[in-house]
Structures are given as structure tokens and as C-alpha cells.
Amino acid sequence: MPIFYRGAGVGTYWHQHDARLTGFMPKAPTIVSSVDRVMQHVARGTISSPYISLTRSYGVAWGYAMVFGRTQPAQSNPAYVYEIELENPLPQELQLIDPVKEVILVASSPLASLTYQHDGLSSFLLGVVDPDNMRQFLDELSPQPPPASGTPRRANLTIELETIVRSLRDAEILAIGNIPAALIRQRIEVWL
Disulfide: which of 65, 99, 144, 160 matches 7 by Cβ 3.0-4.6 Å? Predict the structure, then answer.
């Protein structure tokens, strides 16, 4: 059975509420799922959504637990990484979606002016993957074809591209519905 992870930084909701007892529930379960909502959740970090973010990567969950909390984890007050083992078939009230597939299914035609493609240097993606440490790649001006070379500007970053890149970076899968407590195998304490 596939194993997924979810990080919980110190002081966050799932740090203060033990999902091993309650299971995981989305913040806004009555909002209808759509590709636009998926993109807002993944690319913009909208937490008021019908989704629960999961990852296939322990390392990604560990990173979120270490960085996205109110205080730095310590042995006396650790962050948590939850391990979730999902059954196949899934419980009837639970659905998993792959954000990459959702965006690609409705992505614009390659002939459209706005697609999930960018028009910058190949290093531009490094900035999309890690905007905190590699912002300089987002800020670089895109070369334009001669002779006039156009107006200097940054590369085009669409929400579609941002969603795809972040989903791949984080090995992200979205759950719709409640994840029962019985599927949460353990809560691992983490700190530096």
C-alpha cells in the first residue's frame, strides 16, 4: 500500500491537534473542487480549500515540518511528520488527485499565447523551484530576438507552470475528503 507523508510545523493546526486521533480533514470541505482551486492551493498556498496536501517524499514533509511553524523545532518541542498508508481501493469518502495531471488535462493549446510554458532562460525554472534561495533566476530579463530585442522584461510565469513545478518539487498529491485516523500509521518527531 502506498505511503504518503504530511509535515506539521511547531504551533500549526496539525501540530496542536493529533491527527492519529481525529484523522485529517480539509479546511473547507464544502468548496467544490476545480482546476482553478487546485492551482490556487498549490501555487498560491490557499489553505481555505477542499484539499489536504500529501507528499510521497519523507524529505519534503520533513522540510515543511522544520520550516513552516511558529517556532523552530527542538527536542523539547518537536515538529511532526505524519506517515499515512492509503489502501487501494481508497475509502469511499476519499479521493486523490495529481495536480500535475489536473493542470495538463486542461492546459492551453501549444498555439495559445498563455500556456504552462515560459519564455525565459532554462535557469528560470530554478527560481520557480526555489524562489527563496534562487530569486535571481526569476528576476533575470528574458532575451528577446533581434533586431529590436523588444522591451526588457522578466520571463512569463503562469499559475499553470507554477502549479506543475511546485507539485513536482514537492511530490504533491491532493486528497479530497477526510483521511481516517486508522490510516495514519505514525507521527514522527523531528527537530535539528
Answer: 65
Residue 103 grid cell: 493542470
How far apart, in whole angstroms, are the C-alpha atoms of residue 185 and residue 162? Answer: 32
The ranges of the chain with pLDDT < 70 are: 113-114
Q: How far apart are CA 118 and CA 180, in angstroms?
A: 40
Q: Tell which residue, 173, 170, 171, has the closest CA to residue 67.
A: 170
Domain spans in the chain, listed from the N-terminal domain onward? 3-100+171-190
- DSSP SS3 for 82: strand
pTM recorded for the entire structure: 0.92
Quote the pLDDT of residue 112: 76
Mean pLDDT of the chain: 94
Amino acid identity for residue 5 in this structure: Y
CB atoms under 10 Å from CB of 188, counted, come to 17
CATH number for domain 3-100+171-190, candidates 2.30.29.30, 3.20.170.30, 3.10.20.30, 3.40.190.290: 3.20.170.30
Q: Are 79 and 187 in contact (CB under 8 A)?
A: no
